[in-house]
């Protein structure tokens, strides 16, 4: 898979920032990811992320660490954190930023280590891709969790992106799949990524999926726009 995301991170880290990442989705939406935002400090983070970082305990696995802003903050607080990302450019950026424990791997290939906190921020649960793959995800993360470990994740209910009916209901296309399964590709400078699915979960769906796979699920905090922070642990 072309590492468009990682290329943008490395360019910024090495002082070659000139433009942002453009995303294209199956919702016919074009959006921008401002690259400098991925390098934000704690004060610049949304309240949900700040809350999640305060709840981190013990040894931490930062899943989908990106530019490593969360890992860097936790490391500076004296916590033991491992930054994990499938993007080679992202992990190289994390190393350049001074993060000590950096792993280049996808979550399913990463094995034989256990943690007290699994952190999935910036809609990190999106890596699952599709709702019917949640059981595979939960089965695997169980193998990465110490007794009493927690998962902290944020996501969004993207129902607001669909049109409202005259009676106040929401018109969601009948595709036979969950409405939060969105297909994306990215463009950075003149390079396009391959397409991939990214999952957005409303809290109730997350809670049901968690309970079906032996996890308890708690709503920690609602965000400002259909987003939320949740805490999960093995029952």
Automatic annotation (TrEMBL):
Superkingdom as given in the UniProt entry: Bacteria
KW Transmembrane (keyword) present: no
Domain Methyltransferase type: 61-152
GO biological process terms on file: methylation
Pfam families: Methyltransf_11 (PF08241)
GO molecular function, one term: S-adenosylmethionine-dependent methyltransferase activity
Keywords tagged on the record: Methyltransferase, Transferase
Protein name: Class I SAM-dependent methyltransferase
